[in-house]
Amino acid sequence: MKPPPADQPLSLLHICHSCFLMHSAGGTTILIDPYFGGPFRWKAHDEKHVGPPPAIRPEEIEKLDGIVITHDHPDHCQPDALYRIMSRHRCELWGPSGIYRRAVEVGIDNRRVNKVEAFQHFKVGDIQVTALPNKGSEDTKPCMRMSYLFARDEITVFHGGDSHGPSPAWSGHVDGATLALLWPNHIGRAVSFVKPFSVALMHCDRFDPGDFLCGYDGDEIRARLRKKSRGGKVLAPEAGEWFWPERPSEEELLRLQEKIGNKRRRERGRREDERGDDRQSSSGRKGSRRRDRRGDRRERRQDQKPASREGAEEAVQPGKPKEEGASSGPPAGASRGPQDAGGSAGGPSAPGQTGGGEPGGEQQT
């Protein structure tokens, strides 16, 4: 195993799956989720680790101050490896209640095992550790699935365990972590919630038959994260190589801010264009409706005019048959003579009228 860098506040070595070795500039070394590729039983069948191979074996760890475990799944806690490591190193173990039970079952002295509760703070050497519940475990008593925030000076490293997405309980603890170690399940939501400066993947190893969440395509996920990144670095550490949290340079931040600003301006312009199109469409619809209403009114007036003239003619000479070209009565404003007042001399009276008398009466002389 290569020695860790001496100039980094916190550095890490990815051993296998979700297992990391963490080293501080002060000399503290912590092992997280000890799994070294051993077979295990899962849901009534055997799972075998296919690859990639572990970066180191348990016996290669030269110095160890503490072991921190997120939960008791066998791909995060390998009992035989845990026993061998704790037999060689006088270190302590921290984990939820399930880890305490597993450690005691394999013969580890229970006085070296510390039960961890949600939101508990503890220290391993010069590294401060905060235990946080995973999503879905916030109200479980005792909490059996943890995530951890490791801090030294201004550097923070967040190990998300097997959390199925971000937990609301993380708020105020992990915001802006220098480095987040995350598994691919709901990684986009987790990155948006944590907003780390750098990200590294875990839980991507291949198993046979692999009947659980594993075997992810790390290269494809990293490419997708880089495409959506808003400044955070997506790390791809080589097997057996130490890596550390990274912050973007001032030049990278300026380029990112310009890129985000241009994207926002394009989005605002697109929304304004859509609103303008909507307004024009609405105005066109209103104008069309007004034109339709005016046309309807004109048609109604045209339909009513002939009917009025015909009604007026019938009112003047009711019952008289119309003759083409015949006048329907005296011109407007003409005065009537004596015969008009009393009926036509020697001619038939209008129906219902007999010389000004009552209907059906005799003609007056």
- In CATH terms, the superfamily of the largest domain is Ribonuclease Z/Hydroxyacylglutathione hydrolase-like
Which residues form runs of ≥5 with pLDDT under 50?
322-328, 332-365
Strand content: 15-25%
Instruction: Estimate the global geometry from the Cα principal axes.
Output: elongated
Order of strands in the sheet with most strands? 8-7-6-3-2-1-17
What is the ordering of alpha helices and beta strands? Answer: EEEEEEHEHEEEEEEHEEHEEHH
User: Per CATH, which architecture of the largest domain?
Assistant: 4-Layer Sandwich
Number of helices: 6
Nearest-angstrom radius of gyration?
46 Å
CATH topology-level name of the largest domain? Metallo-beta-lactamase, Chain A
Biggest β-sheet description: 7 strands, mixed
Determine and state the CATH class of the largest domain.
Alpha Beta
Number of strands: 17
Helix content: 25-40%
SS-based class? alpha/beta
- State the end-to-end CA separation: 146 Å
Give the overall average pLDDT. 84
Estimate nothing, just give the exact number of structural domains.
Answer: 2
